[in-house]
Amino acid sequence: MGKRIGLEVSLSAAEAVKMADVDCIAAYPITPQTHIVEHLSELVNNGELDAEFIPVESEHSAMSVCAGIAAVGARAFTCTSSQGLALMNEIVHIVSSMRLPMVMILANRSLSAPISIWNDHTDVMSVRDCGWVQVFANNGQEVFDHVLFGYRVAESEKVMLPVMIHVDGFILTHVIEPVEFWETEQVERYLPEFKPVHALHPDRPVTMGCIAGPPIFSEVKVAQDEALIQSKSEIISAWKELGDIVGRNYKPIEGYKHEDAETLFITQGCFGETVSLAVDALRDEGKSVGLLMDRLWRPFPFEEFRQAVENAKSLIVIDRAISYGGQGGPLALDLRSALYKEKNEPIITNFICGLASRDVTIDDFKNIYNRSMEKIKVNPREEDFEYYGVRGK
Amino acid sequence: MEPTNVYAYKLVSRKEYFSPGHRACQGCAEALAVRLVGKALGRDTIAASATGCMEVVSTPLPFTNWNVPWIHVAFENAAAVASGAEAGMKALMRKGRLPKKKITFLAMAGDGGTSDIGIQALSGALERGHDFIYVCYDNEAYMNTGIQRSSSTPFGASTTTSPAGKVVPGQVTWKKNMPEIAAAHDIPYVATACPSYPIDLVQKVKKAARIKGPAYIHILSVCPTGWRLPPELSIKAGRLAVETGIFPLYEVEDGRYKFTVEVGILRPVSDYLKIQGRFRHLDEGMTGKIQKRVKEEYERLKKKVKMTQGD
Question: Looking at CA atoms only, how far is residue B41 from chain A in angstroms?
Answer without folding.
Answer: 12
